[in-house]
Amino acid sequence: MQGTVVKFAVEEGQEVVAGDLVVVLEAMKMENPVTAHKDGTITGLAVEAGAAITQGTVLAEIK
Asked: Which part of the chain is the Lipoyl-binding domain (predicted)?
């Protein structure tokens, strides 16, 4: 399934805990929140808001 990155709720270097909102995606005219799967620090944002993505695309790195 293809979607679009609506917005990032985090910035590079920001600390997150599991469950924090990281990014909002739009697919099939519905907005879908993507949350952090673990505690850590955002070390990189791999795409920009507005980018078209497909399943398996890396959105952000948490270390």
From this structure: 1-63
Give every residue of the chain whose pLDDT is below 70, as ranges. Answer: none
Measured between alpha carbons, how far is residue 50 from residues 8, 17, 19, 40, 41 in Å? 10, 25, 23, 25, 23
Sequence-separated (6 or more) residues with CB below 8 Å from residue 34 = 21, 22, 23, 24, 25, 59
Strands (E), 1-63: 2-8, 15-16, 21-27, 30-35, 40-45, 52-54, 60-62
Total domains in the chain come to 1
Q: What is the pLDDT of residue 1?
A: 73
CATH number at residue 38: 2.40.50.100
Nearest to 20 by CA among 4, 3, 33: 33
